[in-house]
Write a structure and sequence with these properties.
It is built from four helices and five strands, in the order αααβββαββ. The chain is an alpha+beta fold. The protein has one domain: Trna Endonuclease, Chain: A, domain 1 (3-Layer(aba) Sandwich), CATH 3.40.1350. Strands 1-2-3-4-5 form a five-stranded mixed beta sheet, with helices on both faces. It is globular, with a radius of gyration of 14 Å. The two termini are 20 Å apart.
């Protein structure tokens, strides 16, 4: 999951999120909280490289998840993750920008990955995006 994220492989990240969301043992599969749990499970290996911050206050809202690199891995990019449920991935990306989430981490400028994730429970099981996850990754 980390490698796919670092490489900005949106399709692979969405595919892996699908897997982790399906295997996450939670009783509220169709919610943003369940999606957050699945994302954190997917990034479990990130604990080696990162400190995780949930609901980082930007002054204009809260970024769902931020992974800050540990001092010994300062070459790794910050992962700023915004989650959406039943919207679209562009909505999450727009929220990151409109609420200035990257500004809160300005000293990491140039080493930020803005990761937008959406879960659509009503996606058709024959569609290309089945089973429901989409991802957009931008460098900042």
């Amino acid at each position: 999951m980390l490698k796919a994220t670092w490489e900005c492989d949106e399709r692979k990240v969405a595919e892996l999120l699908e897997y982790f969301h399906d295997t996450a043992e939670n009783k509220t599969y169709h919610s943003e909280a369940a999606l957050s749990y699945a994302v954190q499970m997917a990034y479990y290996a990130a604990q080696k490289y990162y400190t995780t911050i949930q609901e980082l206050d930007s002054g204009k809202g809260y970024c769902d998840l931020v992974y800050l690199p540990s001092p010994e891995y300062c070459d790794k990019p910050v992962l700023l993750i915004e989650l959406k449920y039943e919207r679209d991935v562009r909505t999450a990306a727009d929220q990151i920008r409109s609420r200035n989430y990257p500004q809160k981490l300005e000293h990491y400028q140039g080493n930020l990955l803005l990761v937008s994730v959406n879960y659509d429970k009503n996606a058709s099981n024959v569609s290309e995006n089945y089973k429901h996850h989409t991802c957009k990754i931008e460098k900042a």
